[in-house]
């Protein structure tokens, strides 16, 4: 399975056609290079606030609502692109006002879309400090989800969630082979926290972790003004994987896709015949296993 993970810059859109043009160009570029799974970063949807004008995009609360209002339309377009190019897409995450979750605050939500049109969402579980104040983002009420796809079993840990071992362990115990970790980090320290989380989860779960980053600077927002990072794909430093666990990385701050071909058979092999067996041995210590619920979702 060939994975493409994004270092994605935010742009200003004068109209909806400009968004569609950008989304199509990114998806087309990855698909043309053989990618089957495309991973966009956390809060990559904040650029949709520009469609409401600068007065809205510069106001935090108004921008959150403006993005949420556009998400059904953007999800529909990504669904169209997934079918057209025959790829799975993890959409840029967005603040979404969902009254089934919270009466008046947004959740941080991404959607995994299969080329057959099936899709489901994952909400962020644990909020960072800026999401608590001033954004006031609500914790997703839906549990972690195992997405069963034609490419393999996939889980999503949005940014900060990647830094909590039991969230990753719950997904591994449910059968996840690929952990997708869309991120939005302002400073290098934040990028490295998520990267170290991604590499640690790959080691512990003997799985592949995929980190996407928001990159660049904008002058039309007060909330996502400066971001840094790069795409990265990681595995356990063991049989069938690089000795340092780094399968592929991009370049800090440079926009574009990072690619790697990581067949699920490689994951099965290291779990069964690796020099160490972290995925299996974790549960040998009483209290280590996760009791967190995981929902199963069939996208095949």
UniProtKB/TrEMBL annotation:
Pfam family, one: CN_hydrolase
Domain of life: Bacteria
TM regions (residue ranges): none
CN hydrolase domain location: 1-264
Enzyme class: hydrolase
GO molecular function, one term: hydrolase activity
Annotated protein name in UniProt: (R)-stereoselective amidase
Protein species of origin: Planktotalea frisia
Gene (UniProt): ramA_2
């Amino acid at each position: 399975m060939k994975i493409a993970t994004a270092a994605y810059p935010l742009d200003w859109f004068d109209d909806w056609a400009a968004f569609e043009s950008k989304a199509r160009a990114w998806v087309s570029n990855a698909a043309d290079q053989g990618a089957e799974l495309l991973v966009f970063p956390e809060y990559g949807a904040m650029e949709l606030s520009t469609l409401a004008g600068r007065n809205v995009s510069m106001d935090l609360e108004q921008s959150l609502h403006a993005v949420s209002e556009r998400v059904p339309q953007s999800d529909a377009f990504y669904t169209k692109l997934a079918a057209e190019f025959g790829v799975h897409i993890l959409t840029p995450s967005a603040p979404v006002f969902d009254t089934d979750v919270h009466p008046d605050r947004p959740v941080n939500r991404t959607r995994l879309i299969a080329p057959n049109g099936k899709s489901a969402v994952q909400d962020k579980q644990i909020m960072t400090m800026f999401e608590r104040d001033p954004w006031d983002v609500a914790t997703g009420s839906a549990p972690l989800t195992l997405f069963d796809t034609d490419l393999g079993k996939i889980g999503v840990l949005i940014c900060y969630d990647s830094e909590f071992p039991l969230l990753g362990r719950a997904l591994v115990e449910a059968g996840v082979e690929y952990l997708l970790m869309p991120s939005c980090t302002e400073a290098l320290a934040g990028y490295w926290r998520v990267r170290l989380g991604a590499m640690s989860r790959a080691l512990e779960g003997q799985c592949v972790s995929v980190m996407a980053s928001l990159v660049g600077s904008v002058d039309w927002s007060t909330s996502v003004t400066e971001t840094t990072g790069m795409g990265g794909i990681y595995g356990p430093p063991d049989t069938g994987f690089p000795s340092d666990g780094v399968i592929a990385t991009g370049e800090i701050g440079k926009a574009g896709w990072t690619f790697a071909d990581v067949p699920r058979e490689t994951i099965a092999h290291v779990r069964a015949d690796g020099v160490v067996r972290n995925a299996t041995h974790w549960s040998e210590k009483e209290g280590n296993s996760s009791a967190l619920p995981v929902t199963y979702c069939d996208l095949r």
